[in-house]
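Q: Hi! First time doing this. I have a protein sequence and I read that you can turn it into a structure. Is that right? Here it is:
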Amino acid sequence: MKLRHALALALASASLPAHAANWFQMQNTEPPKAPVYKFFGFVQPTYTSISGDRVTGFTGKYNDHYALFNYVPPMNQSTSAFQFLRARLGVRGAINPHINYFLLGEAGKNSITTKNDVAATDAFLTFSYIPGVRIRVGQGRLPIGDEAMQPAFADSEYINFSAATLGLMNEIPTASYPAGAKTTSSAGLTNARTTGGAFAYRDLGVEVFDWFPHGKWEYAYALMASTGTGLYALGSDYGRGDISGRLQTSYVFGGKGLNRDDVTGYVWYETGKRHFGGQDYTRTRYGIGGRYHQGKLRVSAEYLWGEGMIFTGLNPPFQAISGVPAPVYQVALADNNKAQGGYLEGGYYLLPKLEFDLRYDYYDRLTNNAAAERVFKTWTLGAQYHFKPNLKLQFNYAIRTLDVPNASAIPAAAPLTAAQAQANALAVANSMGNLAALQLTWVF
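A: Yes, that's right. Below is the predicted 3D structure, encoded as structure tokens:
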């Protein structure tokens, strides 16, 4: 089953190397004759409703409570909510023809701002003095997968990321849990506490990159050395340094910028060390993907693999209640812990301003640990109405399932017997509900 999913999505990526705007060019550089400064920003007011059930048949005080995945993140207090998911303001410009800069901050309610109400997401300078070697210095997006590289306001066809991209790439920094605290535990996993919000696919470091047009073809590369501390570099002892890189090839049919029609294939790789509990652990991620866009049609696919430092969230996955030990975050530390997944999606403009989208995504977490393995599958039906180039309304309906493929391997965990622990895991998985979301994106 795992091999079939991997081959299907990887082959789709290879046979449909697909459109992607040149994100290295669009996000890291400024066009000729760019002004010294230009303010910009976007807001994404979002309404989300989740139809999940309360957990039933659960042994313990969490019975008849909602699992966390049936609450609207990041507040996790209600099954439906209106929020400004993203609210970003920035400034960018060219100091001279060879040096440009980019600054962007976030004030929305999302995984970036769980620890601080406002966060700086991007702050970098790009130097373009050397032919074939542009140099970006500062905090910005990593050269990794397509979902992670796309700016949320410009080319995000779905309101939420795929489960594999979120689970493997949107890193959350962790540290060891206080010794002696009352906690729950799972075999093969380590208790942890979070020390910051999500990295949002960004890091602090130096990136070299460039792109090379050759007739209709375009070749691009990027290589980045970074801290591995994401948006929390100052004073952090978590990251020990990362190396990441991406290679891509495009055939351009026509157009430019976000309106470019092309077919692109890419591969990427990221590896580095993370410090946890007095030891360093290796975290590795890599993937292959592609995207096609021409006229009214878009098709894309990507497959990702991960080894080490795999975050699994709270155990058990509930809000804390009185009378029982508080749920605790857990992480699979060693590099023998593995996960994989991907997505296959497409979109079509049925009318000049109305686009319909369909995505299947799949995430198999901890394939090496039978008791802890969980498989997330989602079909997302979407529609977008583009009022203007800077204003669109999106609707998504996500049909979500969570599987426990090896329930019989779950051991007893005092005071639960093995049968009770297995029944609890299945009760939680069976409660996962579908998600409906409506989002307006306004770029200014």
